[in-house]
Structures are given as structure tokens and as C-alpha cells.
Amino acid sequence: MPTAPKTFRAAHAPTPKQSEQDYDRRRGSARERGYSSKWDKASVAFLRKHRVCKACEAVGILQATEVTDHIVPHKGDMGLFWDRSNWQACCRWHHDVVKQMLEREFLAGSIGRSDLNLTSRAALDLASRLRF
Ligand SMILES: [Zn+2]
Q: Ligand 1 centroid to 34 CA: how many Å?
């Protein structure tokens, strides 16, 4: 049976768990970033109104929404955080994979704000490349 190749980590390098803990310490916990019980309720209500991932639907896939995403990253700006016109409901894959890559491209300046919408041409093209 094939096994995954062994990976090596330098003795001084942090473990993946340590890296994650460091990252959370720098950016604050989810609660510290505004993801309160008020958010949980608002997000659930939003997902009830938007049951199908529009980005999946755009390519003919019927996928339930799981995440309320901030189209433009709020970075602690509570005005942007609560601005419902900045919310999009999507499936976990679109949020965790496609949107994270779009945000990196956005922060690097290679795409614009409108490209962060998961039904934008840039997002659909990226999703298509990742999916197939
Ligand atoms: Zn999707």
C-alpha cells in the first residue's frame, strides 16, 4: 500500500499547530474579530435566505450554502463587517479555497474589489481552474 512521503521539519521550526496558534494570537480570536453570537444569528438568517451557492449554481452545480462571507475583507472595520451588501452566501469550498486565493490576489493588487464577488469572471475562472 502506498504511503505518503515523510516530511521533515527543522528542529527550530514551529509545528503546524504552533503556527496556527501564532496566527490566531496575531489576528485575535474569532470572537475578538467580531464573530459574536449576534453574528451567528445574522449569518444563519442570511443563509436561510440564500440557500444555494451562487458560484456553484453559475456552473450548473446545486450546492447548499454553508458560510456567510464578507466579499471585501473587513479587517476589523465593523461598518464593513455588518454591511449586508458586503455579504455573500457560499459553500465551504468556495469560501475556504476560492475566496482565500482571491483575497491573496486582491491584497497583492493583482485583482480589484469587484473580483472578490464569487460570481465575478475572475472568481469563476479561478474556480474552474481549481475544479478541473
Ligand atoms: Zn460553491
A: 24
pLDDT string in tens for the chain (132-residue length): 556 666 666 777 777 677 666 766 777 777 777 788 999 999 999 999 999 999 999 999 999 999 999 999 999 999 999 999 999 999 999 999 999 999 999 999 999 999 999 999 999 999 999 987
Q: How far apart are CA 104 and CA 124, in angstroms?
A: 16
C-alpha cell at 21: 496558534
Give domain limits for the chain. 33-131
Element (H, E) at 67: strand 67-70
Kindly report the three-state secondary structure assignment for every residue of 75-106: CCCHHHHHCHHHEEEECHHHHHHHHHHHHHHH
Give the distance (Å) from ligand 1 centre to CA of residue 74.
21
Distance 82 CA to ligand 1 centre (A): 22
